[in-house]
Amino acid sequence: MSDKPIPSNVIVNVPNTLTGIRFILSIVAFVLLPLNQIWAALAIFILAVSTDWIDGYWARRYNQVTQFGRIFDPFVDKIIICGTFVFLVAMPGSGIAAWVAVVVMGREMLVTVIRSFVEQHGGDFSANWPGKWKMVLQCASAILSMLTLGLHAGQGVTTWYGLAGLEATWFVYLFNFILWGTIGLTLASGTIYIGDALRFIRSGKTSSTP
């Protein structure tokens, strides 16, 4: 089916409702994390991010892509990812260093600005596969971080390179591997988006009125 958005005045449909639920669930997770309700926050987080795949599939499968959804969905994605990383930075032993959160948030803000500019001038700035896999790895890093807090009660040490201070088990190696993969793909996908935007600008299409 076509991905062409249906009229922008259509706001309430299944995909946008799921996105709204994801937004509410993210707020609940943000409340639970500072209260040290790690397992509850983890369950809510997993439920929330799972709706991202469902609403995208539903929108494409049943031709319910909307202009509102194209704005609301990435906004909520950024809220739940950036917010979760910020809260995890504040928790001792999470394995998420402050500079990691800065990289994640900086990339998301930059891509948001670029997307707004390109689409304002009539370009298409839909998510690409590196961007989608970046989201998967970011979610995996957050989940592993919360698992660390739940299983080890903050006994680990957050260093600039990830998790340390625990017995060097496969879990610690997996966490640090996924975390560095997240950082690498976050930077790489952001670079790809910048390249796409520069090619769009050089094409001269920005001179036309949207």
From TrEMBL:
GO terms for molecular function: CDP-diacylglycerol-glycerol-3-phosphate 3-phosphatidyltransferase activity. It is found in: Membrane. It comes from the Bacteria. It catalyses: a CDP-1,2-diacyl-sn-glycerol + sn-glycerol 3-phosphate = a 1,2-diacyl-sn-glycero-3-phospho-(1'-sn-glycero-3'-phosphate) + CMP + H(+). One of its GO terms (biological process) is glycerophospholipid biosynthetic process. Its EC number is 2.7.8.5. It is an enzyme of class 2 (transferase). GO terms for cellular component: membrane. Pathway: Phospholipid metabolism; phosphatidylglycerol biosynthesis; phosphatidylglycerol from CDP-diacylglycerol: step 1/2. It is a multi-pass membrane protein. The chain crosses the membrane at residues 12-32, 38-59, 135-153, 173-195. Pfam families: CDP-OH_P_transf. InterPro entries: CDP-alcohol_PTase-I, CDP-OH_P_trans, CDP-OH_PTrfase_TM_dom, CDP_ALCOHOL_P_TRANSF_CS, Phosphatidylglycerol_P_synth. Its main location: membrane. Keywords: Lipid biosynthesis, Lipid metabolism, Membrane, Phospholipid biosynthesis, Phospholipid metabolism, Transferase, Transmembrane, Transmembrane helix. Belongs to the CDP-alcohol phosphatidyltransferase class-I family. This is CDP-diacylglycerol--glycerol-3-phosphate 3-phosphatidyltransferase. The gene is pgsA.
